[in-house]
Fold each of these.
Amino acid sequence: MKRSSQSAHRLFQPIRGLSQRFAYISLVVSAVGLMVLGKIDVLMMDSFRAQVTDAVAPVLDALSRPAESFSRAVVQVRQLSHLREENARLRQNDARLMQWQTAARNLEAENKILRDLLNFKPGPDPSFITARIIADTGGAFAHSLIINAGARDGVIKGQAAMTGHGLAGRVAGVGSRSARLLLITDLNSRIPVLVGDSRTRAILAGNNSDRLKLVHLPSGESVNPGDRVVTSGHGGALSPGLPVGIVTMVDENGIVVRPFVLRPRLEYIRLLDFGLDGIVKGPLPQIGHRNSKGGRVGKPKP
Amino acid sequence: MTPSLWHRIDLLARQLTPSMLTLILVIISVVPIRILNFSTVVPLLPLMSVYHWAIFRPRLLPAYAVFLIGILQDILTGSPIGVNSFVFLLVYGAVLSQKRFFTGKSFFILWLGFSLIAAGASGLNWLAVSILNVSVVEFHTAVFQYLLTLGFFPAVAWVFLCWQRTFLRLD
């Protein structure tokens, strides 16, 4: 009896090893297949990603709260040591900003009068959705965040994500209660911008580092360090005039832009809804109301 | 009947822990913690887990679990789906094929082994992302992440060893 079970064991061992090896190889092949599929059918992968993110979102939401309190405590302790200098600096800043405020008030009044004179039609006022960041991917190869607001809160793919400082990114994927933001520093981020007072058109490209690059400048235009970079609104993806960053270096390797938004400081984000239709939109006007999840993000129809 | 049922549930729960711990590490590694620039680069915690359990309890972390955990990692970190599954599976396979080398070795050797395997994993990850994006991805962050991962390895491995001694004695 014992001998027969032993011989059976000896017989089945290689088969079992073989089937395990086969399972392993087929898993590796499926991983490669998924990578390729992700390139071919972006929309399907995006919706899959959104669904899984949605499922994990409550866990992330719960975990990110104590993490947030902890990091806030760390920051507070660090700030204690600089309190005096900080105070002096802020007083100076305050005095300077008061002057700016006066200037801004004057300009605002003047602007209003001029607009009335010209019968200028301003763009639509944005509505806001404020969301908390519940996951910072922290990877070396992708710069994206997950927030705790989704389609049910009115989040739509393509909306601009802002902080008080400037543009942080764009909504890249929407689930029902969570959404994924693609930061402007991500390799796949391309934003049409205007540079400096000359309002030179260019494209701001992320490269997975915390420095951005300006590409596709028209020939003959010059850009100088210190120039402000704002969104241009071309292509209808983002509204014009959102502050993005400042030009820090111009040399033969390219033009480097430092973004106003610092990723490690991000906690809350404001999504701006200007009623724009987003980046990818079919050329035909959409008939009837479709839900925001699938309808507005559709592939351009031939 | 009842004690054996409980015994079975207990055993099953214990046996699930390597996969569950890896899953938890995937989630923990994306929770935003803002200390200096920490959040832009976090150590590859799941990679450590895959490496550790592939050496000590490969039967409790089967290949399909590694595959699924890799997919979750891809989804949450926003990298192309399949990349981390691929990398984790290759790490898993590499460790299993060298199992004889790893058994009964000192912790230092395990760390050294991890440094080699993690270097391969980071390089592979970089290569896959570069190919999928059809451009050369900046790799300084990846190097920094690799060094950070190496530095964190002893702490995580110690926790795993304690866990394994307390809960996974029978195998």
Amino acid sequence: MREIHNGLAVECRGVTYCLPNGAPLVSRLNLQVAHGETLVLLGRSGSGKTTTLKLINRLLEPSEGEVLISGKPAAALDPVLLRRGIGYVIQDAGLFPHWTVQQNVGLVPRLEGWGEDKIQARVQEVLDLVGLPPAEFAARRPAELSGGQRQRVGVARALAGDPPILLMDEPFGALDPVTRAELQREFRAISKSLGKAIVFVTHDVREALFLGTRIAFLSQGRLVAVYTPGEFLRAKEPEVHAFAASIDPGSEAEGKR
Amino acid sequence: MSWYTFLLQDRAEVVVRTFEHIQLVAAAMGIALLVGLPVGIALVRHRTLRRWVFGAANIVQTIPSLALFGFLIPVPWIGGIGAGTAIAALALYALLPVLRNTCTGIEGVDAAVLEAARGMGMTPGQVLRQVELPLAAPVVLAGIRVATVISIGVATIAAAIGAGGLGVFIFRGVAMVNNQVILAGAIPAALLAVLADLALGAVQRRLASQ
């Protein structure tokens, strides 16, 4: 092993990802995510946030540079096993419509060959954690759930295998504002108690400020800078400032007048 | 003499011909599924190859069925007079709906579901068996249903090359200018098609509701 474990859960070193036609979606990206922190990737649509997530769990392979997972080059690991150790939550939840909530949530434990009793117990545990009483929800199918409940199941499914790393791609983006705020509050509490390394993609500044321990701002595939929430609001870079100002569109209009 | 008199009079032969008919269709559908399902699954990932295969299957569909039976007679191995040639022709006809629906069924699986399946650490084989195939099943079955109903109809022509089946009555009735004899073949064939359609429709609905 040429890399000594440096305590980081995820590290991107000079990672570039180009489309087959050569157009770069992510350019020379350097990022570090420690255990117990939530790094928010913030930026406009097309800034490379989702691509970055997929480079971490090898749904995409970097054209240049390398991704390290717990200090080991991801490229050297079996992608299937790597992904089982990284929870993944996407915007549309992506629940398996032909499976019950129980089956959906128990996926990774089942793939990992846990015993039936252990899977059952773990499913109950994570469903409780995300606020879905198993007695009421375990036997339902995704079609019998509201959007918010589906996202809760998506989070439970990602947590079921107890992965040290969690990737979340706008998990609350499609929810109504009230449900979104509710899930954000609960998720913040969960993430604080679990101590996992979380990479969270969003284009919602409020969400970034609320959930992020640090905010990595991306623009056109490049990392502009990484800020704490406090620094983010005071940042001078025009694009970042525009984002920060978007929290209160009224004041921005005021300023231009 | 009403139309069912012949059916009753010659019910022994009607039963024999019906079973021959079912055997022809079952054998042809078996081959179409054995070839069509795996090839259909493989074609999902090979877009250029798919254009060629679908093109060829489409051309087969445009050949008039009687001509296709005739064309196959001189072909070595599968040709000749009799059931083998008829089964080959029927299987060729049934192939396109099976292939096409297998492809479109798998392609119709929600991209978010697939991304989640891969992202959670399922192997490509697990994604196929546990996610893509179960979700594509209603569409695939719709293709099998169409192919079966078409095959039951087309199989009546198999009698023209000595393959037996209910078409025997139809050709005999045409030769004798006797409608009762024609109906003795046509009515059981139509009933078979309706029954197959209803049965496969029921399976399809059950799959879709899951």
